[in-house]
Amino acid sequence: MDAGKEALSSLLGNKREPTLREQIEEATSSGEGCFSLTYEERVIGFLGCVGSGMFLNCFSVIRIGQLLLGNPVPFAVCFTIGNLLSMGSMCFLVGPARQCKNMLQPGRAGATILYVAMMLCTLLVAFSSALTHIERVVLILICIALQMIALAWYCLSYVPFGRRFLTSAVCSYCFGRE
């Protein structure tokens, strides 16, 4: 689009949203974000973090036996680091400042705060010596469940009408309304 059409479009309020690639390239040229990585390096970093995070989350499932037998630390640490890697992967694409800004937008802040708080609680409970084995297991499982719920709620904020659809479906299921 030439400059005249862009100016007319912006006067009429018809701004088009920049693509993810354009946002990444803008962040790179303006000096914010992940220093001076190329687009391809950012995608590789993103995929590496997401892949590592998913691997650690899957690997933590193997460690559920240790959790149930009284050693919750390997499971909790593996699961939490996997989540941190996955959550931080977007920093490669949009930069840490923009990622934090996106996570703390009014519609996402609650889910983000709950997600991070439950990751911290998972670790605190795992390393706590003041709790019995059963208390630690139950609290860790509750923290993990709340992490997953918060993550799903956060992800649905990016899907148009995603939260509304889920809320409607759950209410319909629970109250038998069609």
TrEMBL record:
It is a multi-pass membrane protein. GO terms for biological process: protein transport; vesicle-mediated transport. GO terms for cellular component: cytoplasm; endomembrane system; membrane. Its main location: membrane. The keyword Transmembrane applies. It holds the Pfam family Got1. Keywords: Membrane, Protein transport, Transmembrane, Transmembrane helix, Transport. It is found in: Membrane. The chain crosses the membrane at residues 43-62, 74-97, 109-131, 137-156. May be involved in fusion of retrograde transport vesicles derived from an endocytic compartment with the Golgi complex. Belongs to the SFT2 family. This is Vesicle transport protein. It comes from Hemiselmis andersenii.
